[in-house]
Amino acid sequence: MRPKRWGLNLPGRDFRFEWEDLIPAIAGTIGLVVMCTAITKSFASAYGLDMAFIVENVRVDMIAVSLFFVILFSGIFNPRANLAGIHGPMLPLIPLMAASGSHPLALGGLIAVFGIILSVSKGGSRLVKVTSQGVAGGLLVYLGAIGTIGQVGAIRAWAESLNLGYIGFAVLFGNFLLYAYLARIGKRWLSIPLCSLFAAVIALSLGAPFEFTTGPGLPSFNPMYWWGETTGWKLGLPGMTHFIAALPFAILAVAMWSPDFLGHRIFQEMNYPAKAKHVLMDVDDTMIGCSLRQVVTNIVGSGCITSSWGTYMIPAAIAKRPIPGGAILTGVLSIVVAIAGFPMDIAVWRPVLSIALLVGVYLPLLEAGMEMVHNTKDAKAAGACIFASAIVNPVFGWALTMFLDNNGLIADKERAAGLNLVDRFVIPGLGFIISTLAMAVVGMIPGIPALIK
C-alpha cells in the first residue's frame, strides 16, 4: 500500500477493509469515550457545569472529530496521519488552567498555531530522529509501567469502594490469564475486545452494580450556543487576558506531543513488516491533523485537548493494519456511540475502562520499551530516562535524557560523535529549555511554585 499523503484515497482502490480493522476501531472508540469524558468532566467541575453539559459536550467532540478528522482526514485524505485523539497527560492541569483564567477556546487556538508551526518547520519529525533507541525505550517503559500500576490501582479502589474487593482481584487475575494466553497463541490483537468483555462478564456475574443512564440524542453544533454568556460553557468569547493565561499551557501541550508521537511511530515500526514503511504514520502530518482538529472542534463547542490517538494506533500496530480502514470504522463507531448514548455508559464503567487501557495501551507500551533495549548502552540511556521521568514527568525525562545522550554524557559516546551540531545541541537544547520553562510556569516542577496563580 502506498497511500497518497494529500490526495483522495478510496476504499477498494487504495486500501481495503479487513476483519482485523475492527480491533483498533473498537479500542479507539472506547478510548475516545473514556478520555473525552474525563477531560470534559474535569473542565465542568472547574467551571461549575452540570452532567447534562458533560454529556452534550462529549457528543459534540465525538461526532465532530469522527466525521472531519477520523473518517475524512486520516481515512480518506491523508492515511499517513494518525488519528487526532485526546491529550491525556494534560488532564491533571485542567483545574489549574481554569483557576488561572484560561479559556478553552483560547487554549485550543494557541495549540493549533504552535502545532502548525512545529509541523511546517519539520520540528516534530526531527525530534523523533534525534531520539536514540535507549531513550525511546526508557520512555515507553516508564509510560507503560506507570499506566499499568495506575489502572490496577484504579480497579482495586473501585472494587473496595463497593466493599467487594474480591471482584477487583477476579477481574485482574482472569484477564491476566486471558492476555497471557492470547500472547501465547499470537492473537494479542484481540485482547481489547475480548478482555474488556471478559472483565464485564466477571464483574457482573460477581454482583457488581451497573446501570444505563445516557439516552440517545444529538447535540447542538452552534458555536454561539457553546461560547455564549449564558449558554454552553457560559464563558463568552475569549479576550486577550484569556490568551495570555492559556499561553504556557498551550506551549506545554505541544511540547508533550513529540514523545507521544515518538512512542506511537516506534510501536508501528516494531510491529509492522519491514517493507511496510509507506504506511507508517508521518509525525509532521499527524501534527497538522491534531492542530486543525484542535481549533475546529473547539469552535463548535468541544473543550478537549488533542494529541496522537494511542488507543487506536497501538492496537492497529499489534493487528498489523494500516491506518485508513480502521480509521473509517472508528469514526463510524464513535458517531453511532455518541448518538445512541448508552454504549458510553459501558465504555466508562471502571472494569471495562481500566482493562481496555491495560491490555490495549500500557502493557504493549511496556513490552515495546523493553524490546528496544538491546545492549548495555541502551540500558543506561533507558535507565536515565526512567529516573528523570520519575523526578518530574515523562516530558522532562525525555527532553533531559535526549540532550545528555546526544552529547555523549550518558550511554553511547560514539553515537554522539556522529551527530552534527544542530542534532547534538540546538534541537535537544531548545526542546529541554522550552518544555522545562513551560512546566515551571504552570507549577509542574517539584518545589517551584507556579508563576500563574
From TrEMBL:
<feature type="transmembrane region" description="Helical">
    <location>
        <begin position="97"/>
        <end position="118"/>
    </location>
</feature>
<feature type="transmembrane region" description="Helical">
    <location>
        <begin position="381"/>
        <end position="404"/>
    </location>
</feature>
<feature type="transmembrane region" description="Helical">
    <location>
        <begin position="139"/>
        <end position="158"/>
    </location>
</feature>
<feature type="transmembrane region" description="Helical">
    <location>
        <begin position="348"/>
        <end position="369"/>
    </location>
</feature>
<feature type="transmembrane region" description="Helical">
    <location>
        <begin position="189"/>
        <end position="210"/>
    </location>
</feature>
<dbReference type="InterPro" id="IPR021794">
    <property type="entry name" value="DUF3360"/>
</dbReference>
<feature type="transmembrane region" description="Helical">
    <location>
        <begin position="22"/>
        <end position="40"/>
    </location>
</feature>
<feature type="transmembrane region" description="Helical">
    <location>
        <begin position="323"/>
        <end position="342"/>
    </location>
</feature>
<protein>
    <submittedName>
        <fullName>Membrane protein</fullName>
    </submittedName>
</protein>
<feature type="transmembrane region" description="Helical">
    <location>
        <begin position="164"/>
        <end position="182"/>
    </location>
</feature>
<feature type="transmembrane region" description="Helical">
    <location>
        <begin position="235"/>
        <end position="257"/>
    </location>
</feature>
<keyword id="KW-1133">Transmembrane helix</keyword>
<keyword id="KW-0812">Transmembrane</keyword>
<feature type="transmembrane region" description="Helical">
    <location>
        <begin position="424"/>
        <end position="452"/>
    </location>
</feature>
<feature type="transmembrane region" description="Helical">
    <location>
        <begin position="60"/>
        <end position="77"/>
    </location>
</feature>
<dbReference type="Pfam" id="PF11840">
    <property type="entry name" value="DUF3360"/>
</dbReference>
<keyword id="KW-0472">Membrane</keyword>
